[in-house]
Specification:
The chain has 441 residues and is α/β, with parallel strands linked by helices. The radius of gyration is 22 Å and the shape is globular. The strands form 3 sheets. A 7-stranded mixed sheet has the order 4-10-9-8-7-5-6, sandwiched between helices. The protein has 15 helices and 14 strands. α3 (87-99) packs antiparallel against α12 and α4 (108-120) packs parallel to α12. It folds into 2 domains: 18-72 and 320-428, Aspartate Aminotransferase, domain 1; 87-317, 3-Layer(aba) Sandwich (Aspartate Aminotransferase, domain 2), CATH 3.40.640.10. It has helices at 18-28, 75-78, 87-99, 108-120, 133-148, 163-166, 177-180, 191-200, 222-233, 253-257, 283-286, 302-317, 320-342, 369-382, 399-422, and strands spanning 54-58, 61-64, 69-72, 126-130, 152-156, 183-185, 205-210, 236-241, 263-266, 277-281, 348-353, 356-361, 385-386, 390-392.
Length: 441
């Protein structure tokens, strides 16, 4: 793995991100925000202190358009589990490219990959494919509504850009109020609140959808309690495993926690960065897919399916998940140690699963948390580490990658702690602070 570019703490030269910023200006002439994804745009990457365009990536390293190398702990927003340009996945995809990507008929890979998912995932008795996580979650919601004959959805967390989901957040512009009214958010780890919602909307709720784990682990008995409530009220339980699937366990978080939903959705690391998602679930529900319209020209695109098959083969053949857990636990322990040693522990904490952990900023009220987050990004980017505040582990994160993260945090955490203590976080920024996109929990 190529070593990341490192620079001492100093104001970045005006030209550090010149190529990225020039390309961003060009892109914004033709693309709203200059990016296809909010998380890769100026809404989440502070202008003047961030790269915006990747040139290439390999293993655990990403290179930007200015030629800077970064050890990447973002991994394409958790879409890359094995590492960038994994040779086994790339070889499988390239072989399929030679035979074609889409056809006038279905391809055998559709059945082969669906069968593999059914072998691995506890709830999976049948599978349909999409291209994005939003495809899968929206398909699952449509199936639940068809199966129950009900309309209301209880949702916890972010489940994609479709109206039924994003309408329950602050990014609801363009979503009809009638659609927004059919989605009711609930708090994670609060069974009493969920039970009260189900009672208040008795006979109306088609589905409960949640990530089985995100920033916070499920409290003991919580997921089992959600399962019981869903059964009691005749509601379809959906686990959004877009990230947790094939990351927490080969069978997903449902296998790790021992709670089986009625439907589950997958994406992100299913094909190690190739565009593929899936809805999986019990036959009785998935049979609705024969009438529910869930159909894509690219739904059976064979290159991504070949990549997914290679991913699933590698999960069986090599200790991928075990390695993610071991190295992720090392990251969590090191981050916790560095927070304590720097005094930053008063203003931040580490949480989440070892394979997908979060750095949570909790400064005192007089300090803007978004300014602090911006300062963090400014400083880690300048030192050759790419993270948005999470540690999305990949199989390519070896000792060298973890060492870079530890070295960078050892330099940056004291800067952040001093800035909070002195109350001069904003003065240390070379850019405007970020603003919240929306809150999902």
């Amino acid at each position: 793995m190529a070593a990341a570019a490192r620079v001492p703490h100093s104001d970045p030269e005006p030209s550090r991100y010149a190529a990225s910023e020039a390309l961003l200006a060009r892109a914004r002439e033709f693309i709203p925000l200059g990016a296809q994804t909010f998380s890769k745009s100026i809404t989440q990457l502070p202008f003047g202190a961030s790269p915006y365009f990747a040139a290439r990536a390999k293993g655990a390293t990403l290179w930007d358009e200015d030629g800077h190398a970064y050890v990447d702990f973002c991994n394409a927003l958790c879409a890359v589990t094995l590492g960038y340009a994994d040779p086994d996945v790339n070889a499988a995809a390239a072989a399929q490219v030679a035979d074609g990507s889409v056809f006038s008929l279905s391809h055998r890979l559709e059945a082969e990959v669906a069968e593999r998912i059914c072998q691995l995932v506890p709830c999976a008795e049948a599978v349909r494919f999409g291209k994005n996580g939003s495809d899968a979650t929206s398909g699952a919601i449509r199936v639940a509504r068809a199966y129950t004959g009900r309309d209301r959805v209880l949702t916890c967390g972010y489940h994609g850009w479709q109206d039924w989901s994003i309408g329950a957040t602050a990014r609801s512009k363009g979503v009809p109020q009638a659609v927004r009214d059919l989605t009711t958010p609930f708090r994670f780890n609060d069974l009493e609140a969920l039970a009260a919602l189900l009672d208040a909307h008795a006979g109306e709720v088609a589905a409960i959808i949640l990530e089985p784990m995100n920033v916070t682990a499920p409290a003991p008995g919580y997921l089992q309690g959600v399962r019981r409530l869903a059964d009691k009220h005749g509601v379809v339980l959906i686990f959004d495993e877009t990230i947790t699937g094939f990351r927490f366990d080969k069978g997903g978080a449902q296998a790790l926690f021992g709670v089986t939903p009625d439907l589950a959705t997958f994406g992100k690391g299913l094909a190690n960065g190739f565009p593929l998602s899936a809805v999986a679930g019990k036959q009785a529900l998935m049979a609705e897919m024969e009438e529910v319209f869930f159909s894509f020209t690219m739904g059976g695109e064979a290159v991504s399916l070949a990549a997914a098959k290679a991913v699933l083969d590698k999960l069986d053949r090599e200790p991928v998940i075990q390695t993610l857990r071991i190295r992720g636990a090392e990251v969590q322990a090191e981050v916790d140690r560095l927070l304590i040693n720097s005094g930053m522990i008063a203003y931040a904490s580490i949480s989440g699963d070892p394979t997908w952990s979060f750095l949570n900023f909790t400064p005192p009220p007089q300090v803007d948390v978004w300014a602090l987050k911006t300062l963090f990004l400014q400083e880690v980017f300048a030192r050759g580490l790419f993270t948005l505040g999470t540690h999305n582990m990949s199989y390519a994160h070896g000792d060298e990658a973890i060492s870079v993260l530890v070295d960078v945090y050892a330099e940056v955490f004291p800067i952040l702690a001093e800035a909070v203590r002195r109350g001069d976080v904003a003065k240390r920024l070379h850019c405007a602070p970020l603003q919240p996109l929306f809150k999902v929990r």
